[in-house]
Design a protein that fits this description.
This protein is of the alpha/beta class. Helices cover about 40% and strands about 20% of the residues. It folds into 3 domains: about 80 residues, Orthogonal Bundle (Arc Repressor Mutant, subunit A), CATH 1.10.10; about 100 residues, D-Maltodextrin-Binding Protein, domain 2 (3-Layer(aba) Sandwich); about 100 residues, 3-Layer(aba) Sandwich (D-Maltodextrin-Binding Protein, domain 2), CATH 3.40.190.10. The strands form 3 sheets. The protein has a 5-stranded mixed β-sheet. It has a 5-stranded mixed β-sheet with strand order 9-8-10-7-11. A hairpin with a 2-residue loop joins strand 1 and strand 2.
Length: about 300
C-alpha cells in the first residue's frame, strides 16, 4: 500500500506555497484559513518535518518545504496533464480479438464489417497467429483457437458447431472426360494437403473405403487459406473446413463435387475470461458471434 499524504493536505500546501498566504490559499480552495492551517499541520506531522515558517503574518517555505513543493508541483502537473489527455481522447473502446490465421482471413474478417456497423463506437483489433494468447494476462478479449488446448482457470471455452470437411476444387475439374463426380474419381487426382487439418486425406480415403487407393503425395501447406488458394488456381483438390471455404463456394471460385455434407470435426472454439463478460464490448461481440455461428449460449 502506498504511504501517501492526503490529497486535501497536498492541495492546501501547494496553494500556500504558491500564494504565500493562508488567507489567499483558503480563498482559492474555498475553505476557511483554519482548515488550511489544520491540513498543513497534519501534513507536517505525517512527514515529521516543518514545511512552513510564519513570521509577521507572512508564510515562508523552509528549505525542506521548498524542495518538497517543487516535487509536489511536478506531481500535480503530471496529474493535470493525464486528466487533459483523457478528456481530449476519443471516447472509443478497443476490442481485441485473436484468432487462428485461416479462420481470421477466410471467415471472420469478411464478417467483421457487420459487427462494426452495429457497434460504431467500438474499434476492433484483429490479430492472427497459430499460437494462443494468454487471456489471463489480458493479451486479448477473445481468442478463437483451433484444436485442443488444456483448460485454464477462469477461461471459458465455447466450441464452434461441428465443422464439415469438404472436398473442394476449381470448377474446371468437374467438367470434361476426367471430371470429378464420385469418390472413385479422386484416384489419381493431385491432393493438396493442409498439414494441420484435423481430418486428413488419408482419413478421408479410409472413410470412403478406398484406403488402398491413397497415395501420400501432393503439395503441402501449413495454412488452410494457402491450400484453398492453390485449389482455386487449379493445382489440385483440397480437403477443407467449410468455415474456411464458404466465401469461395459462394463466389463460385471453388465447387464441392460431392455436395456440402461430409465428415465433421470439432475444430475451433471461442475462449474468453468469464470475469470480463460484464463489459459491454465483450457481451456485444459474444452475442454477435454466436448469432453468426447459429448457436446459443447454454451457460457455463
Amino acid at each position: 500500500m502506498r504511504n501517501l499524504p492526503s490529497l486535501k493536505a497536498l492541495k492546501a500546501f501547494d496553494a500556500v506555497a504558491r500564494l504565500g498566504s493562508f488567507v489567499a490559499a483558503a480563498a482559492e480552495l474555498k475553505v476557511t484559513p483554519s482548515a488550511i492551517s489544520h491540513q498543513i499541520r497534519a501534513l507536517e506531522n505525517q512527514l515529521g518535518v516543518r514545511l512552513l515558517e510564519r513570521a509577521n503574518r507572512a508564510v515562508y517555505l523552509t528549505d525542506i518545504g521548498r524542495s518538497f513543493s517543487e516535487r509536489v508541483v511536478v506531481g500535480f502537473n503530471e496529474l493535470e496533464a493525464a486528466s487533459l489527455a483523457i478528456e481530449r481522447a476519443p471516447r472509443r473502446e478497443m476490442l481485441t480479438i485473436h484468432s487462428a490465421p485461416s479462420l481470421a482471413q477466410q471467415w471472420l474478417m469478411p464478417r467483421l464489417r457487420s459487427f462494426q456497423e452495429a457497434n460504431p463506437t467500438l474499434d476492433v483489433r484483429l490479430n492472427a497467429s497459430p499460437t494462443p494468447v494468454n487471456l489471463l494476462a489480458y493479451e486479448a478479449d477473445f481468442d478463437i483457437r483451433f484444436g485442443y488446448y488444456p483448460a485454464q482457470p477462469g477461461v471459458r471455452r465455447m466450441p464452434f458447431p461441428p465443422e464439415t470437411m469438404l472436398v473442394l476444387c476449381s470448377p474446371k475439374l468437374v467438367s470434361g472426360d476426367k471430371a470429378i463426380r464420385s469418390p472413385i474419381d479422386m484416384v489419381g487426382q493431385t491432393l493438396i494437403h493442409s498439414e494441420f487439418n484435423l481430418f486428413s486425406w488419408r482419413q478421408w480415403f479410409e472413410a470412403e473405403g478406398m484406403s488402398e487407393h491413397y497415395v501420400d503425395k501432393g503439395p503441402r501447406f501449413d495454412r488452410s487459406f494457402l491450400s484453398i488458394s492453390a485449389a482455386i488456381d487449379g493445382q489440385g483438390v483440397c480437403l477443407e473446413n467449410i468455415f474456411h471455404a464458404i466465401g469461395e463456394l459462394e463466389s463460385g471460385r471453388l465447387v464441392a463435387p460431392f455436395g456440402l455434407s461430409g465428415y465433421t470435426v470439432q475444430g475451433h472454439s471461442i475462449n474468453f475470461l468469464q470475469s470480463r463478460m460484464h463489459l459491454q464490448k465483450n457481451r456485444s461481440f459474444q452475442t454477435w458471434l454466436l448469432a453468426e455461428l447459429g448457436i446459443e449460449d447454454e451457460g457455463v
